[in-house]
Automatic annotation (TrEMBL):
Pfam families per UniProt: RVT_1 (PF00078)
One Gene Ontology term of the molecular function aspect: RNA-DNA hybrid ribonuclease activity
Gene3D superfamilies recorded: 3.30.70.270
Stated family: Belongs to the beta type-B retroviral polymerase family. HERV class-II K(HML-2) pol subfamily.
Top-level taxon: Eukaryota
Protein name: ribonuclease H
InterPro entries per UniProt: DNA/RNA_pol_sf (IPR043502), Rev_trsase/Diguanyl_cyclase (IPR043128), RNA-dir_DNA_polymerase (IPR053134), RT_dom (IPR000477)
EC code(s) of this entry: 3.1.26.4
Location of the Reverse transcriptase domain: 1-125
């Protein structure tokens, strides 16, 4: 997945779905009525059944030349990986140029640049190693032993 990379950057896009324009003429399909009137979305709202797959297809298309070479993307999360710092600067510049061209923006507070390890999509990523986030494993391992049927009904939160 990371091709021997030693340096990683993670980007998280802001308002991702709202950046996809609904095809002109199809706005009526997103219509809703309130006491204040009739409204139709012009951009793809969160909550539509196909929003994730439409956005993923969009991301796959705009990053098709970079995917699996130095970039992995899952919906609004982007992982950039490189073998050297100079190469990493080039990769980041290429990705940011592509984002700018398509008017996509990242949440600065959610981004991590030039890291030797980071967490992406619940996985701990470091040179030569991808593993489950240790915090998630600890949460499951610390569960109390279930003894009664009532214990099974208690919701467990990660």
């Amino acid at each position: 997945m990371t091709n021997g990379a030693t340096i990683f950057t993670k980007l998280d896009l802001r308002s991702a779905y709202n950046l996809i324009r609904i095809r002109e003429g199809d706005e009526w399909k997103s219509a809703f009525i309130t006491a204040q009137g009739h409204y139709e979305y012009l951009v793809m709202p969160y909550g539509l059944a196909n929003s994730p797959s439409v956005f993923q297809a969009f991301m796959d298309e705009i990053f098709r030349d970079m995917r699996d070479r130095f970039l992995n993307v899952y919906i609004d999360g982007i992982l950039i990986y490189s073998q050297s710092l100079s190469e990493h600067f080039q990769h980041i510049a290429t990705v940011l140029a592509q984002l700018r061209q398509h008017r996509l923006y990242a949440k600065a507070k959610q981004c991590e640049f030039h890291r030797t390890s980071l967490t992406f999509l619940g996985c701990a990523i470091s040179p030569g190693k991808i593993s489950i986030n240790p915090e998630k494993v600890t949460a499951v391992m610390d569960w109390p032993t279930l003894v009664t049927i009532k214990d099974l009904k208690i919701p467990r939160v990660f």
